[in-house]
Write a structure and sequence with these properties.
The protein contains 30 helices and 26 strands. By secondary structure, it is an alpha+beta fold. It is rod-shaped and about 195 Å long. It starts with a helix and ends with a helix.
């Protein structure tokens, strides 16, 4: 808990974001905990692989796969798995940062917060839209995942981590931009390539193996090609950088060698000038030495150190004091002090120096032989008889590290290198080389600001000694060490090693952006390919699912159809355009006693009564001519073809081919013999009962009418009221009996019609007069404006009057008081339309489909407010249809109802005669 608090202190600006993450606790269910652990392991392993794939030797991987794993895991399992991602990220940072101290562990902890924070914010942005589906079947979902979860959300971890490392000095501030881009690119590419693939494999229900493979294989292939191409391009770029550094190193070695060689040559040449001279005066030395120094400006100083044996020391010191006009004494150093030289076999004191400065004059009298490094070089030069270069040494006057060239001068040319040679030596010409000044003079050839240069003397490999280390900071990461070039040079018996390492600035200037451009293009191509494949495979999967679902539905429908086809008691049939049976279900056998297979191919008219065949043929032709969409017929089967001749109800409808043209007929045949038998019994019963009831009711009605008229004497008011109730109900029973008789006659075909030529205006006037008393009693006004021209039709006056009475009485019955019932008579092209409009409640929606059925009433309960038998509209429909007319209604709830009927109009005598004859 203390570690988390320390991380919160470090990331003060991001406390709100961390608080948002803190709301999601550790997963409590095993069903989520197990996948969270698996994702954490996958995160760690792929992170380690990503660091191994680090092409530059740094911690920046070109494609950071864990970013895609973290985002896909949170999108699928929810944000509650963030602790698992955080722990995995922390473990990766501990390993990559080599956290061997508490401060490094805290740094790793702080950096690790960026990974889960990035995934939480990315998931939140993606799931802000409620319709997001992890199955990635819509282009909007793919775009949200790749854009919001990729470039947008990946800014979080890069900014957080690079900002922290640059502020703590882990990386250079000037390199923070490049590191940020590398981090952001790695996370973004990891999301673009691997988040869709992993999310697809996590879907168990909405993704098929085929779709997963079609998306995964090209995505992985594009990733591998991107990494390989980036690797080889980086290798080529690094090879070029190495070559550039090598060339700079060769130039540095060549220039250094030439400069040092020039100095040794100058010292050797000066020694040759003095060789054979009896005495070397100060003026001679200054003249010659100044000329050499002017030509070789890299020489820090030149000096003459004569050979003085022990016996001549005193005379030499006296002679030198007179010559130099100052106190001269052979000295040696003891720590920081100069003391008289101790007694030894011989001395090599500095006598002349140039340039003549206070620092160089302070060196006069110093015994070179008293210093181990100088003594070794002096002995070596005496042994070889040639110039010798000392090991690295701190020059007198704090000129820094350098080397001294020591060239022997002989009184006569040496014959051989033996002990006698020492008696011939006069002294040594000494030249000092300050390596720092020498390297600085090379700035015209090499930009020293771009390289870290080290020069070591490795004559003794076990004890290398530094000659020069440049002011540029030493390499602090493997990237610089990778480009370091090392070379050696032999000069005057010494072996120098020169190392040149490029700085960050040189690498940045010399490195090519081609590998990153290629990587970006390859990953963009891979992510675009993945997105396209996601959408295309999603479309394919939808089609496949639709085909499978449709096939399953078809199989189920076929199964249900077969069950219905074989299990129905009604005959289902199909016939072609020539009226031959095409399909018959097994119910045909139960109806006719004949196998359906035997009947297929035979003409359907063979199976129907000859008297009904014309009726059937007319119905089929009407359907073929599109005059009717379907028809119900009641027909008799042919007794000659069958053992019995039952009544059947035939439903006919049109069958169409693919182009919509007539392909035949289909429908069903139901045995209604039992219904017909019951109808006959019912008709006989109704007829009998109606006639038996009508006679006594007529007598009762007449007697009640006689009593009501007062001819038999006046009755008390209370008795008259009771008499009136009895009379009204008797009238009602008579109307019911008349309606029942009418229905019976209509169904039996016994209802006779007497058609004549009549004017509908007169008929409507009669009906209005007859219903006026009923309207006044209901406080309803009847309105009718007859047209000016006659409305001639062919009709049965009494039957048509019956229709008008039914419609008007219904309108009065359902109209509120003080309302109007309007009748209209409108002429159309070939017919007259009579409409009756009321202002009542209208026809209830649930009653509209059965309004013309027998005994149908909107309110059929025992407590209904409106009386009636429910036969009036049914009788009216039958009467209008017998007139070859149409009857219907229009109604809106609470807006009243308009009932109408239409009859063919008579225009002249020819039409009347034609219709009368029909």
């Amino acid at each position: 808990m203390s570690i988390i608090r320390m991380a919160l202190i470090i990331f003060q600006p991001n406390r709100r974001l961390l608080a948002l993450m803190a709301k999601h606790q550790w997963p409590s269910k095993l069903g989520v905990l197990a996948p969270a652990c698996a994702l954490a392991i996958a995160y760690f392993l792929t992170a380690r692989a990503g660091l191994l794939l680090s092409l530059s030797g740094s911690n920046a991987s070109p494609v950071w796969i864990p970013a895609g794993i973290a985002l896909a895991g949170m999108v699928h399992y929810g944000r509650s798995i963030w602790p698992a991602i955080w722990l995995a990220s922390f473990a990766v940072e501990l390993v990559s940062q080599q956290a061997d101290s508490f401060s490094k562990a805290i740094l790793a902890l702080a950096i690790s917060i960026g990974a889960p924070l990035e995934a939480v914010i990315g998931t939140t942005l993606i799931r802000m839209h409620a319709d997001f589906s992890p199955s990635l079947e819509k282009k909007e979902d793919v775009a949200r995942l790749l854009i919001l979860g990729g470039p947008v959300a990946c800014v979080i971890s890069a900014t957080l981590s690079i900002g922290l490392m640059s502020s703590l000095g882990v990386i250079h501030v000037q390199d923070a931009g490049a590191h940020w881009l590398a981090w952001w690119f790695g996370d973004t590419f990891g999301v673009l390539i691997f988040a869709p693939i992993l999310l697809l494999w996590l879907q168990k229900e909405n993704s098929t193996l085929k779709r997963r493979l079609l998306v995964t294989l090209p995505g992985l292939a594009s990733f591998i090609l991107a990494v390989i191409s980036h690797y080889y391009l980086v290798q080529a770029d690094q090879k070029q950088i190495k070559e550039d550094v090598r060339q700079q190193g060769v130039q540095l070695r060549w220039s250094t060698f030439n400069q040092v060689q020039g100095i040794t040559n100058a010292v050797s040449a000066l020694a040759l000038l003095f060789e054979g001279s009896k005495v070397i005066t100060p003026k001679d030395f200054e003249r010659y030495a100044s000329q050499f120094r002017n030509f070789h400006r890299d020489i820090s100083g030149l000096g003459w150190a004569p050979y003085v044996d022990k016996a001549s020391r005193s005379n030499f010191e006296h002679w030198a004091s007179l010559l130099l006009e100052k106190d001269y004494q052979i000295r040696e150093t003891l720590g920081q002090l100069q003391i008289p030289a101790s007694e030894r076999d011989f001395y090599v004191p500095v006598l002349y120096v140039t340039p003549n400065t206070d620092v160089t004059r302070a060196a006069q009298g110093f015994d070179l032989y008293s210093n181990d490094i100088r003594r070794s070089a002096i002995l070596e030069s005496m042994r070889k008889g040639d110039l010798t270069l000392t090991a690295p040494i701190t020059l007198v006057g704090n000129y820094g590290k350098g080397a001294i060239c020591i060239a022997p001068v002989y009184s006569s040319p040496p014959q051989s290198a033996n002990s006698d040679q020492a008696r011939q030596i006069m002294g040594f010409v000494v030249g000092s080389v300050q390596i720092g000044n020498l390297i600085d003079r090379l700035s015209q050839d090499i930009n020293l600001e771009l390289f870290h240069i080290e020069i070591f003397d490795i004559t003794e490999p076990e004890q290398p000694e530094a000659l020069f280390i440049s002011r540029q900071s030493a390499p602090d990461n493997p990237l610089q060490d990778m480009f370091t070039q090392t070379m050696q040079m032999d000069i005057s018996g010494r072996v120098w090693r020169i190392s040149i390492t490029p700085t960050h600035l040189f690498i940045k200037q010399d490195a090519s952006i081609t590998p990153w451009i290629a990587l970006i293009l390859a990953v963009l191509f891979g992510s675009l390919l993945t997105a396209v494949l996601l959408l295309e495979t999603a479309h394919t999967v939808k089609i496949e699912k639709a085909v499978i679902d449709q096939s399953q539905r078809l199989v189920k429908a076929e199964t249900r159809y077969q069950e219905l086809f074989t299990g129905l008691k009604q005959v289902i049939f199909q016939a072609d355009k020539s009226y031959q049976w095409r399909v018959l279900n097994p119910a045909w056998n139960g109806l006719t006693g004949e196998n359906p297979e035997d009947a297929v191919g035979r003409e359907m008219f063979h199976y129907f009564h000859p008297d009904d065949c014309d009726k059937l043929r007319d119905a089929l032709q009407k359907i073929a001519r599109l005059e009717e969409s379907s028809l119900f017929l009641e027909l008799r089967l042919n007794a000659l073809q069958l053992e019995r001749a039952p009544w059947v109800e035939v439903h006919l409808q049109r069958s169409k081919d693919a182009s919509g043209k007539l392909d035949g007929y289909s429908g069903f045949i139901a045995d209604i013999s039992e219904r017909k038998r019951l109808d006959i019994l019912k008709t006989e019963f109704i007829s009998t009962v109606s006639h038996e009831l009508r006679t006594p009711l007529t007598a009762i009605n007449g007697s009640l009418a006689l009593l009501d008229s007062g001819r038999l004497g006046l009755l008390p008011d209370q008795a008259r009221q009771m008499l009136h109730i009895a009379y009204s109900n008797c009238e009602r029973l008579l109307r019911l009996i008349n309606d029942l008789l009418d229905i019976q006659k209509i169904e039996s075909g016994g209802l006779e019609f007497s058609f004549e030529r009549l004017d509908l205006r007169d008929l409507i006037g009669e009906a209005l007069s007859a219903n006026q008393q009923l309207a006044e009693k209901a406080s309803v006004t009847l309105a009718f404006e007859p047209p000016a021209s006659p409305a001639l039709v062919k009709a049965d006056r009494d039957r048509l009057r019956q229709v008008l009475d039914n419609l008007i009485s219904n309108a009065i019955k359902f109209s509120p008081a003080d309302k109007t019932v309007s009748l209209t008579l409108n002429a159309h092209a070939h017919y007259w339309e009579v409409s009756v409009q009321d202002q009542g409640p209208g026809v209830p929606p649930e009653f509209r489909n059965k309004i013309f059925q027998k005994f149908a009433q909107a309110d059929s309960s025992d407590t209904r407010l409106k009386g009636g038998t429910g036969l009036g509209l049914s009788i009216s429909r039958e009467i209008v249809q017998r007139h070859h007319g149409q009857i219907g209604y229009h109604s809106e709830p609470n807006c009243g109802a308009t009932f109408y009927f239409r009859l063919h109009a008579l225009t002249n005598g020819a039409v009347w005669e034609a219709q009368a004859s029909s």
